[in-house]
Amino acid sequence: MLKPKIVVPQQFIHKQPIHHGEEFGVLCWNTQKLTETHSFQRVLADILARYPCLFLLLQEAKLTPRNNWLLPQWSYAIAPNMQTRRSVYGVLTASQYAFTEAHARLSKKREGMFATHKSYMLSYHSLAEGGALLVVNVHAMNFVRANQFSQEIAFIKEEIFGHKGPLIVAGDFNVWSRQRRLRLLQFCRSLGLRKAIMVDPHHIKTYRQHPLDFIFYRGLSLQEAFANDTSKVSDHNPLYARFKL
Question: Which part of the chain is the Endonuclease/exonuclease/phosphatase domain (predicted)?
Fold first, then answer.
């Protein structure tokens, strides 16, 4: 049901690597399929003007296959999880650094309520001194049992476990229960990931008093992190983190 069948838009126009000592912003946001609306684009432009970012990690992005959308000055790649006649939906990773690789992945299982998959994106961004930053943009499984959730994040772990360089794993993890939170914690510990602690956590989307959205990192120095209150646009607020390589 609604499984994507086409190659969706992507573009790679940047050649700039990340240099040691350089700082860059990361914006992570479940956009609730509102990416093509004027209100979303206006709020995104305002956020980027105030908090410059070199990475956008969007979940539930909605795009028209033939439309370049609102990112003409960005390199980007999309991992779709759904497709209709007019639109594709999924996670989108955009950057103003060079992509050396981008791999779209679909969950093995389908969600019980809607019989749809979830998706995640693996992207590699070259470092000037050699190696790469790996960025994993995740929209984790919902409406499945905790053991199925655990299996899906185990697949992600298998793909990225061998990466030796800096790492960012971010997105909407749907950890709305104690069991799911425990499995996510085990995932992070096994990869040496740290959680970016938000200055104002009350703005983070919660369900059953459990935060759903996170930015995790390894091999980087966190400079600041906060959640931006934009509740009039999406039911999730964007997370912002600034890192130094």
Answer: 29-236
Both structure tokens of 113:
């309520």
Whether residue 9 lies inside any domain: the answer is no
Task: Give the model confidence (pLDDT) of 95-115 as tens digits.
Answer: 999 999 999 998 776 766 666
CA atoms of 106 and 120, how far apart (whole Å):
7
CA distances from 221 to 21, 22, 24, 167 (A): 10, 10, 11, 11
Would strands 239-244 and 221-227 be described as parallel, antiparallel, or unpaired? antiparallel
Whether residue 165 lies inside any domain: the answer is: yes
- Reading phi first (left if > 0) and then psi (alpha if -120 to 50, else beta), residue 219 is in left
Quote the domain boundaries for residue 219. 25-244
The count of domains in the chain is 1
CA distance between the termini of the chain: 42
Q: By C-alpha distance, which of 108, 55, 19 is closest to 217?
A: 55
